[in-house]
Amino acid sequence: MVRAHVLAGVYEWFPLLAILTGVVVVVAAPVVAVLAVVAERVADVRVDRVAAVLVAVPTTVAVGALLVLGGVLAAAVVAAVVLVLAVAPLGVGWLVAARADATPVRAGRRWVVLAWPVVLGLAGVLFVAPGGFARYNVLFLDSPVRELAVAGLLAVAVLGPGVAVAVLDRRRRSRPAGTPPEPPRR
Q: What keywords does the record list, in alphabetical order (predicted)?
């Protein structure tokens, strides 16, 4: 019985680990985006590859350290959060950018990398929206509402960069090249 109680205490901090990992990803996303775009401009490298390396290297170090210090489950929690908040949104966005008709692939990749931190910031605001920064977040909602809210947050975070590229591509495709944008209608 004591062993079950000790194990329950060990796993209590996994939700906190997931939230802290999410905060780190949200805070690091703008830095990754800026560094990737600067590297693309200066060194003429693919922005998606630079962003992938800038996400993969710290994640590998963190997961490796947690394998040694925190165990397999702690490493799995961090890897899953990074997979959902970094790898999946960038991957989905890059797939949409590759299929965009009116947008050059290089520009589409750049749009994905630049839209990613904006979408993560939006997801972060939605996460704390029920109670504000000082009180509650989505996890304190009642059960059916909480599951819907978490599913919506995941949809925003994962599909957001791809949706941004699709909208920008659609907007670019809707008017001929070289024509100025129409003035707003009143």
A: Membrane, Transmembrane, Transmembrane helix
